Structures are given as structure tokens and as C-alpha cells.
């Protein structure tokens, strides 16, 4: 009983992270029922991944920008613009895909550098610079395309959007074995990594996660990965874009957690003044964040163009809003300093499942937008509600309501809470 | 003449953990200029906030009688209805609105919801004439100087038919000419029957305009001196302000002072917005190995500004002067350059400038020197935890683990995290700005011990503090600053609260 209580206490102290994950699963189950099982059919799961890949790629860069306390409204236009540039390079000029792709990413970096310069070094708020960028790059898209779509693209590029890893069994097996190997391998690696990290945390006395919960969580995630592997393997195997995405998630998670750059990003978003007075080159970090966003927007543009097999004047419209929503649903804070790549991925998937599920049900875009808007509002509202509550009591509010003993972990009773007690010496100058 | 207009009796105001005011009594007579004096943090501003309703009636104990009627203010607008108007140190004007709009802000001259601009500007012009300001009422406030803005504030107060005008450090941001004009205006208004309370550090100004001065120390009324009676010298007032025993204990230390580590020469800093104001003026000072040097000065003397401008030009514009380390001139033009040269600056406002409050202890400790933890391109988080744990133990940071969020720590423990951060950057010179502000007595002693230890390790330490006993207790040498000038350099053997306060209130020659 005490183990259960301990687990519950821990869950409430991590309500946000756990909550968003549970929400994703509930939404999946809901649509699974509503769509009579279509949602989790192998073909649809593959579609889900491919359809949402470019939003997820954008959400990685977006959550980093948001963590630093900025925003980027221009990513949709940049993605569209890069699609147009790719069209001109590959279709009109006949460049090989292996030259065109790096060239497009370079153009993305330059676009990011342009915006980063105005934001970091001139000091114009990112909202304004990227709002201008949204117009500028949409305009450049139309100019580049002369208002007409460019099509078709060669098969090598199209593979980036809709291609799959080769079937090593030559199409004779029910399951696609390469996918099975990759999926099982990734699951094993994840479990080993989780155990290793837990051991290290234990060694430094930082562990506050109950064993029961750790086992449930890890087993659950492993199971989930195996199910997805199975579903993908029983259709056409692993989409190439999923591999791209997986690599990006792993690299950027490491970058945000373990690199000086990532840590400086959190420091800037958490307290800009303190970061400056600690010798962090805040302008350089901001500049690099936007260069990075430009490159990721370019990649998203390439994937999108490859999937449609056409560069279109309106390509990428609205992507910025979906990726911003993904970051915020995934737990990023509007004031900056808080957020994770993994959270943004889950946020993106929630949006993706909502889109996909409602489309299967035949709901029009009118209702889709209405519901997506409400979900965003509720997710962030829940966040703020919970923060306000826990700020007062020093523990998770919902935990108290459920009469669960708050977990005496890291944050709960770290010394005497000061809150916003007016320091009398300060007040009485 | 001697009828009281205001009586405050037994005022006690408590903030969680601290008594800011304790049984304070204040009596102000009708038609006089009454000065309130005291050290930084003595409780002067708190008392005025109690009087003007910033702190509502229910939040303190004691009685306030204004014109023999009890006052139960629950907000500023209540006190303003009775004719009590406070003008804060930081002016509360909206920079883009006109003078007339500012004067009638919140009190618009309106006719059925529509502003009567003719009346607004005409009445404003009359008020400007009363305060002797010859500006067009439609001029935006940001286009006139700070001195004139102060006059606009007074005109605004007059528009509310003020009976008791409270001015909190009215001349702190003004030059000599504007200060003189303002003081004349206060005397002029006195002639028209307006009673004034003026909070000021400038004792010569007090002697010029005030009829009486009440001295507050450590949240208590010490005495009220009648200046008209004669024999009240500046020294007499100073004695009242500082006459406090060295009650807290300080760790014993035997200084082992070595060669000079840091020297600042002819340092001048201008105000970032008002470029005509010299916030620091030709200041020179040095600090040696193993030495603890104090920087004493009253509010607005330029102590923090001096330190922050040296530390990567983090304050001010058109900064000039030279910084030498071990006799060699160094460039401290950016924060990272200053850190590279072994300088650390722990801010006076740790919540705004010192800590990332949403992050944990270890990430704050490593923030200024993350590069030291990099192995093969990645931050070694295990090493980070080890380092932070070491500091947690050696600095006695009270937290369950180094993964505790700093925003939830007490002030003393937060300060220890800030100090840990700077110790990890391995500096030769530490500048500690108000290191014990907002910290309880027990934690203060721990901070003093840490400072003593740093000096014993051969660091050069500069301590900026508003608490004179603290400086006397831990420093080897103390510089005093007044209005941006270094007005004194006192070896600890010759220092007392009186001598320091004398230099701190000294005007430039």
C-alpha cells in the first residue's frame, strides 16, 4: 500500500509530464473506438508518422526557440520557400538530390541567420522579426515559383517524404524484418539507457522516482515501441522520414540536456539577466538558435515537398501554428526556460492524432480547428492552474485534492520556501 | 503653529520573519517641513507606505490620526482623498503622455466620460505656474528633464488639493541646481500652508529646509529633533542615525594581506538614460590579496553601478577609466572577459540578476563556468553533480539534494548558491554586493564565515553593504562613496560608524 501511495505521490509531483503522456494515450484510445479500429490499422499508423513528420521536425526547433523565450512565426513560410528553392534547383536546374538537399539546408541556415541577426544583435523582438519573415518568405516563395507549382520530383527526393527502408525479405514475409530488428534494437537500447541513468542518479543520491513507477513506466514505453514496430512492420516497414526524425530527436535531446549550447539556452530563458551576468554570450546563443530553426524549417520544407511531389505556392501555410501548439501542449512555458524536445514530440503527436482521427470520422476542417484550439487552451490552462496551486502549497495541488501525501522529493520541501515574501530590507530603502 | 496635523502612534508592521517597524511614533505639526532620517533599511519608506495606504490598515498595528480624525486607509486613493499625497523615489509618470495628462492621470477633467481638454490644459498651466515650471502642458513628459518631472509630480499632488505632501528622496536623482529649486519650492509651498514630510539622506538639505527631523533606526523611532532650537549639528543627526551597538557577531580572522590584485583608476560612469548625470565620478580604488575591502555609501551613491560597470560594462554608458590586475591593465568590457580575468560579481538582487529560479541547484552552480565541466564536447553531468554536492556540503546549503529548485530555497540558501556559482568560476577577485540582504541572522554569520574563508584562501574580496556594523565587522579597509565620488578611505583601525557616515554624507568639494 505504501508503495502505491508513494507512486501516486510521485505521479502528482510530475503531473505535467505524466499527464500529457496519458492524454495522448487516451486520445488514441478514444479515436480507436470512434473510428472502429481504423486509427491503429498498420496503414494508418504509417500515414500518421509520415503526415506529421514535418510538423514534428519544426517542433524540435520551435521548442528550443520557445525555451529561450522567443517565438518563430515564419517557419511555415520558410518551409514553403525552401520547397520552392528545391523545385528550382532540382526540376529546373537539374541538380542531383545529394547536392540540392545540402544546398537547401544551407539556404535555410542563411534565412535563419538573417532573422537571428535582427533578433539577437539589433534587438527587435522575435515576434516582429518573424512576423515580417512570415510575409517576406511567403512573398519570396510566390516570386520563386512565379505563382505556379513545380513538379514532378525525382524518386530519390520523393523517398524522403514517402519512402520506406528496403524490405530485406524481398516481400515474402508477413512482417518486415528490418523494421522488427530496428524496433526491437531501439527498445532494448532505450531500456538499457533508462536503467543506466537510474543507476547513476542513485549513485549521486538524486533519485526520487519510486522503483514501482520506474518499472511500470519503462515497461510501458517499451511495450508501446514494440506495438508501433509491429504495426509498421506489418504494413510497408519503416518510413525513411521516421529514421530522420528519430536521429533528430536523439541528437537534439542530447544537445539540449548535455551540451553547453543547450544549457545556455535554458539559462537564457530562465533568467536572461542572470545568464548575462554569468558571462553567457546571450546574443550568440540566440543567433544560433534561429540559424538552427532555419535549417530545421528547410528540412521540414524538403520533406513536405517530397511527400506532395510538388513545390506549391501555399506550401507550409499554417505549419508555424501547429509547431508552436505542439511545443506548448508538450509543456513548454510561455515565459521561457521550460520545455523538452520529447514533450514537443508528444504535443505534436496529440495534434497529429486529433487531425487524423477527425479526418477519418469525416469532421470538416471547421470542427477540426475548433477542437484543436480548445485542446491547446486546455493544455496550457491546466499547466498554469497547476503551477499556481503548487506554488502556494509547495506540493502538487491535485495530489492534495486526492488526499495523497505529497512526494517529499526534490522540489517539494527544498529548504524553507520563501515564495514572494517582500524582503523588508528591500522594501524599506 | 504647534498643532499636530498628523500623529502616528505605536505603528508596528511585520513582514514574515522580520519586524520592519516596531512601535513607531511620529508627530508632524501643521505647516512644517518634517524630515525623516535613517540608514538604508531603517524603515523610513515602510513608514511612509503605511501612512499613504500602500499597506492597508489591516496589515499593521497602531493608530494614525490626521487632522484629529482616525485614518483607516485601504489604498492610496483613500489617503489621497484626505489630502495626503506621496511622491515616490522612482517617479510614477507615464513618459509618452503630456504633462497635463500626467497631472490629471486617474483624475481626468471629464465631462460625461469625455475628456475636457481645454480645462485639462488650462488648469495644468495654472498648477505649473504654482510650482514655477515654465513648460507647455502638452509637452510629453519624456522630453523634459528629471528635475522638471519632479516638479510635474508636485503639480500633480497640488491638483489633488494636497495638505500633507510626502517626498521620498526627492533630490536623489537631481543635480545641484534642480535640487536647490525643488527645496525652494518646498519652502514656498510651506508658505501656502502645505505640510511636507521629506525623506532624505542629504543632511545639509535637511538643515536647509526642515523644521524638525525624526530619526528612525532599525524600525524604531529614536528621537525627534527640533532644528529651530539651534545646536543641532550634522554630527548630532549622524549620531542618532548610527548609534547602534555591534550586536551581531562576526567570525574572528587574522588578515594575511599580500600584494595588490586589482586596481581601478579614474573610473567614471554615466547614467544609461540621462547621459548628463555622472553616476560614478573619477573613482579609484584597489584591493589586495587576502584583503576584504568594504564599499560604503547611501542609496544612490553609485556603489552597485561602479561594481557592475567594471564587471563587463553591465551598467551605464560612456564608461571610462582603467582596470589593472597584478599591475597589468586588463579589459573587462564584457562579462565573459571579466570572468576570464578572474573577477566575479555576486549581485545585490539575487532573484532578478543572480539565479535561474526555475532551475535546480547544480545547474545554477555550474552556470558561470559550464566550460569547466565539458568532456569531449558534452557537459559531464556526473561531474556537475559531484561539484554541486561538494559546494552543498562545504557551504552548508540546506536542501535535500542538488536537484532542488533554487526558487524554493530560503534567502540565505539562495545566497549560498550564488556564492557557490562564483567560487566555481575560480576568481581572484570577488565583488559581493549586499551579500546578506534579506537573510536572517544565523545565515548572515555563515556568509561572513565564507567571506573570511575566501580571504584566507588568498582571494581579494570587495564587499558592498548598507549595514555599517557589517562592514566594520568583516572588512580590513573601507572606502566611502557619496554621489559617485570616493569621499574617504578608512583603515579598519580608524573606522567607526560615525566617521563612515560623516564621509558618506559628505558633499563633493
Structural class of chain A: mainly alpha
Alpha-carbon distance between the termini of chain A? Answer: 54 Å
Amount of helix of chain A = over 70%
Q: Could you tell me the number of beta strands of chain B?
A: 24
Number of helices of chain B: 17
- Most extensive chain-chain interface: A-B, 47 and 70 residues
- Report mean pLDDT of chain A, rounded to a whole number: 85
Regions with little confidence, pLDDT below 50 for 5+ residues of chain A? 391-429
| Uncertain stretches of 5 or more adjacent residues of chain B | none
Report the major sheet of chain B: 6 strands, mixed
Task: Give a quick set of tags describing it.
heterodimer; A: 429 residues; mainly alpha; 18 helices; globular; B: 509 residues; alpha/beta; six-stranded mixed sheet; 24 strands
Characterize this entry briefly.
The complex is a heterodimer of chains A (429) and B (509). Chain A is mainly alpha-helical and 429 residues long.
How would you describe this structure to a colleague?
The complex is a heterodimer of chains A (429) and B (509). Chain A contains 18 helices and no strands. With 429 residues, chain A is mainly alpha-helical. The longest helix of chain A is centred in the last third of the chain and has 29 residues. By secondary structure, chain B is α/β, with parallel strands linked by helices. Chain B has 17 helices and 24 strands. Chain B has a 6-stranded mixed beta sheet, with helices on both faces. In chain B, strands 18-21-22-15-23-24 form a 6-stranded mixed beta sheet, with helices on both faces. In chain B, helix 8 crosses helix 17. The mean pLDDT of chain B is 88. The interface between A and B is large, with 47 and 70 residues.
Amino acid at each position: 500500500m505504501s508503495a502505491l501511495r508513494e507512486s501516486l505521490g510521485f505521479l502528482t509531483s510530475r503531473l505535467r509530464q505524466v499527464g500529457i503522456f496519458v492524454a495522448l494515450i487516451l486520445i488514441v484510445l478514444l479515436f480507436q473506438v470512434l473510428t472502429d479500429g481504423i486509427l491503429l490499422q498498420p496503414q494508418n499508423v504509417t500515414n500518421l508518422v509520415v503526415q506529421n513528420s514535418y510538423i514534428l521536425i519544426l517542433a524540435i526547433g520551435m521548442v528550443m526557440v520557445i525555451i529561450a523565450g522567443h517565438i518563430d512565426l515564419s517557419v511555415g513560410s520558410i518551409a514553403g520557400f525552401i520547397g520552392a528553392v528545391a523545385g528550382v534547383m532540382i526540376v529546373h536546374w537539374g541538380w542531383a538530390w545529394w547536392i540540392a538537399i545540402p544546398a537547401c539546408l544551407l539556404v535555410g541556415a542563411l534565412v535563419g541567420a538573417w532573422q537571428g541577426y535582427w533578433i539577437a544583435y539589433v534587438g527587435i523582438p522575435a515576434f516582429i522579426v518573424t512576423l515580417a519573415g512570415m510575409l517576406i518568405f511567403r512573398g519570396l516563395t510566390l516570386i520563386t515559383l512565379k505563382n505556379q507549382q513545380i513538379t514532378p520530383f525525382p524518386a530519390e527526393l520523393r523517398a524522403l517524404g514517402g519512402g520506406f527502408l528496403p524490405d530485406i525479405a524481398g516481400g515474402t514475409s508477413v512482417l518486415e524484418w528490418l523494421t522488427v530488428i530496428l524496433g526491437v534494437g531501439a527498445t532494448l537500447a532505450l531500456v538499457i539507457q533508462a536503467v543506466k541513468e537510474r543507476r547513476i542518479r542513485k549513485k549521486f543520491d538524486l533519485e526520487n522516482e519510486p522503483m514501482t513507477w520506474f518499472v511500470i513506466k519503462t515497461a510501458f514505453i517499451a511495450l508501446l515501441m514494440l506495438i508501433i514496430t509491429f504495426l509498421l512492420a506489418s504494413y510497408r516497414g519503416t518510413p525513411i522520414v521516421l529514421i530522420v526524425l528519430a536521429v533528430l530527436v536523439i541528437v537534439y535531446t542530447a544537445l539540449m540536456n548535455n551540451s553547453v549550447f543547450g544549457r545556455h539556452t535554458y539559462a537564457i530563458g530562465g533568467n536572461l539577466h542572470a545568464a548575462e551576468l554569468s558571462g553567457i554570450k546571450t546574443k550568440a546563443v540566440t543567433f544560433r538558435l534561429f540559424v538552427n530553426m532555419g535549417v530545421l524549417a528547410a528540412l521540414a520544407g524538403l520533406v513536405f515537398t517530397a511527400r506532395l511531389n510538388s513545390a506549391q505556392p501555399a506550401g507550409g501555410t499554417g505549419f508555424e501554428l501547429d509547431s508552436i501548439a505542439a511545443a506548448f501542449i508538450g509543456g513548454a512555458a510561455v515565459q521561457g526556460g521550460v520545455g523538452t524536445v520529447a514533450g514537443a514530440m508528444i504535443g505534436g503527436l496529440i495534434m497529429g492524432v486529433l487531425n487524423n482521427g477527425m479526418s477519418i470520422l469525416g469532421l470538416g476542417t471547421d470542427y477540426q480547428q475548433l477542437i484543436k484550439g480548445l485542446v491547446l487552451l486546455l493544455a496550457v490552462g491546466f499547466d498554469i492552474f497547476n503551477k499556481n496551486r503548487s506554488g502556494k502549497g509547495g506540493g502538487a495541488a491535485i495530489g492534495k485534492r486526492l488526499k495523497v501525501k505529497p512526494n517529499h522529493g526534490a522540489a517539494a520541501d527544498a529548504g524553507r520556501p520563501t515564495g514572494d515574501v517582500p524582503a523588508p530590507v528591500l522594501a524599506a530603502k | 503653529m504647534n498643532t499636530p496635523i498628523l500623529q502616528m502612534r505605536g505603528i508596528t508592521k511585520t513582514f514574515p520573519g522580520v519586524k520592519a517597524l516596531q512601535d513607531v511614533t511620529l508627530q508632524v505639526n501643521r505647516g512644517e517641513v518634517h524630515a525623516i532620517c535613517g540608514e538604508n533599511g531603517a524603515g523610513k519608506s515602510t513608514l511612509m507606505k503605511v501612512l499613504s495606504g500602500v499597506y492597508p490598515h489591516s496589515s499593521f498595528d497602531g493608530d494614525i490620526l490626521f487632522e484629529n480624525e482616525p485614518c483607516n486607509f485601504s489604498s492610496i486613493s483613500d489617503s489621497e482623498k484626505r489630502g495626503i499625497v506621496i511622491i515616490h523615489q522612482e517617479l510614477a509618470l507615464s513618459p509618452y503622455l503630456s504633462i497635463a495628462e500626467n497631472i490629471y492621470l486617474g483624475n481626468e477633467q471629464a465631462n460625461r466620460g469625455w475628456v475636457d481638454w481645454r480645462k485639462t490644459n488650462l488648469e495644468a498651466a495654472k498648477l505649473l505656474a504654482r510650482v514655477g515650471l515654465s513648460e507647455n502642458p502638452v509637452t510629453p513628459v519624456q522630453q523634459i528633464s528629471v528635475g522638471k518631472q519632479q516638479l510635474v509630480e508636485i503639480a500633480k499632488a497640488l491638483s489633488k488639493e494636497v495638505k500633507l505632501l510626502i517626498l521620498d528622496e526627492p533630490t536623489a536623482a537631481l543635480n545641484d541646481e534642480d535640487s536647490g529649486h525643488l527645496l525652494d519650492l518646498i519652502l514656498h509651498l510651506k508658505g501656502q500652508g502645505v505640510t511636507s514630510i521629506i525623506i532624505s539622506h542629504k543632511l545639509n538639505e535637511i538643515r536647509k529646509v526642515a523644521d524638525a527631523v525624526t530619526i528612525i533606526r532599525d524600525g524604531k523611532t529614536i528621537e525627534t529633533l527640533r532644528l529651530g532650537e539651534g545646536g543641532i549639528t550634522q554630527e548630532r543627526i549622524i549620531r542618532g542615525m548610527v548609534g547602534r551597538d555591534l550586536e551581531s557577531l562576526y567570525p574572528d580572522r587574522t588578515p594575511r594581506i599580500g600584494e595588490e590584485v586589482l586596481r581601478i583608476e579614474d573610473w567614471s560612469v554615466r547614467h544609461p538614460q540621462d547621459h548628463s548625470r555622472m553616476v560614478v565620478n573619477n573613482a579609484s580604488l584597489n584591493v589586495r590579496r587576502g584583503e576584504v575591502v568594504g564599499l560604503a555609501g547611501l542609496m544612490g551613491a553609485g556603489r552597485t553601478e561602479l561594481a557592475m560597470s567594471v564587471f563587463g560594462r553591465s551598467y551605464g554608458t560612456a564608461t571610462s577609466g582603467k582596470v589593472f590586475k597584478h599591475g597589468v591593465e586588463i579589459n573587462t568590457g564584457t562579462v565573459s572577459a571579466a570572468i576570464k580575468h578572474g573577477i566575479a560579481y555576486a549581485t545585490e538582487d539575487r532573484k532578478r540578476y543572480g539565479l535561474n529560479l526555475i532551475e535546480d541547484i547544480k545547474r545554477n552552480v555550474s552556470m558561470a563556468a559550464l566550460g569547466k565541466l565539458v568532456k569531449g564536447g558534452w557537459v559531464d553531468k556526473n561531474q556537475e553533480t559531484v561539484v554541486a554536492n561538494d559546494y552543498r556540503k562545504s557551504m552548508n546549503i540546506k536542501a535535500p539534494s542538488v536537484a532542488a529548485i533554487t526558487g524554493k530555497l530560503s534567502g540565505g540558501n539562495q545566497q549560498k548558491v550564488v556564492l557557490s556559482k562564483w567560487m566555481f568560476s575560480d576568481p581572484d577577485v570577488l565583488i559581493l554586493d549586499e551579500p546578506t540582504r534579506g537573510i536572517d541572522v544565523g545565515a548572515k554569520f555563515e556568509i561572513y564565515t565564507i567571506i573570511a574563508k575566501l580571504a584566507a584562501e588568498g582571494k581579494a574580496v570587495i564587499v558592498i553593504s548598507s549595514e555599517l556594523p557589517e562592514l566594520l565587522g568583516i572588512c580590513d579597509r573601507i572606502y566611502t562613496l557619496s554621489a559617485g565620488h570616493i569621499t574617504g578611505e578608512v583603515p579598519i583601525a580608524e573606522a567607526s560608524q560615525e566617521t563612515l557616515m560623516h564621509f558618506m554624507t559628505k558633499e563633493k568639494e
